[in-house]
């Protein structure tokens, strides 16, 4: 699904040198690499504060802790996403409220969010799923009208740009009140281990969060709030510094591959391709995900595997049907889109090193199967 060795070959010298420098300096935790990466990412995103942490799941949890959400507060998020999003809501004893998604871009459905808002609702967590920015204008309007926080789960969308109604271009993860991201190796900006970060333009919130990631300390050995231990280590920060200057090129390579996939499928009636907007960068293709119609999706998966083509089903089960997250308040009729997507989505290999002949082989194999 991803080719991290190929990408490494292009940045090997810098990465190896960086890792060697960290080993020489022995500043493994909170070293200069971490601080430098934080500044460079703030500049890249044009956001006031980046707070590095240990992974994308922690980042989400810490963002929610920083906002002071309390047990019983309702947090609305998408039914069709990776479980980390709902997991941290539940872990903090907040009440997850899962809602359906949009059939075109797979992101949280605005009408469903509207219906789910109650006096207990405190936050909405849109996920920029597969690298495509959610409808942030509508979400920010709802948030303002109902006095809610918007927490962007930007684990899959780093580097995507969103053009708001005001005509202003902003990077995904800098539009809501706070955002989280993950540097898991296969993400668009991935390190060589675990890593994550929180972004915000709110000075006071950034200060609160900086204490939370460090055991609730604002002054050494004074623990003002209950915190966690969540750090990005220096070696990972060094790897991320080597990759960040290439992030836009990496994302362009993904977009190019996506265009080629889509061009190959253009005449296929049984294949629904993701929407690609030519005028903007609001999709950075963390995944290239098709829907297949009148086709046995699981048989297609098997067929591709038999031809040594990796593929993925993200995600095979709606969160509202996962044992850990079922709730008697949910009504099947409220999740028609997610319930359909889990049966017909399939993600094809997507990374920065895809060659034309690979794309040709993959698309031909898919097309042969759906038309057999
Ligand atoms: C990867 C991912 C996370 C979690 O990130 P980790 O670094 O693996 O903890 C959270 N949300 C979404 C949507 C993700 O894709």
State the domain count: 2
What is the level 1 CATH name of the largest domain?
Answer: Alpha Beta
The largest pleated sheet is described as:
7 strands, mixed
SSE-based structural type = alpha/beta
Strand order of the largest sheet: 1-9-8-5-4-2-3
Molecules bound to protein:
pyridoxal-5'-phosphate
CATH homologous superfamily of the largest domain, by name?
Type I PLP-dependent aspartate aminotransferase-like (Major domain)
CATH A-level architecture of the largest domain: 3-Layer(aba) Sandwich
Helix content: 25-40%
And the CATH topology of the largest domain? Aspartate Aminotransferase, domain 2
Distance between the termini: 25 Å
Number of helices: 12
Averaging pLDDT over every residue, what do you get? 96
Topology:
Blueprint (H helix, E strand, L loop, with lengths): L3 H22 L6 H14 L3 E5 L2 H11 L7 E5 L5 H8 L3 E5 L10 H7 L4 E5 L10 H11 L2 E5 L7 E3 L5 E3 L6 E5 L13 E5 L2 H10 L4 E3 L2 E2 L10 H10 L3 H18 L6 E2 L15 E5 L4 H10 L29 H9 E4 L7 H15 L2
Parallel strand pairs: 2-3, 2-4, 4-5, 5-8
Antiparallel strand pairs: 1-9, 6-7, 8-9, 10-11, 12-13, 13-14
Bound molecules: pyridoxal-5'-phosphate (PLP).
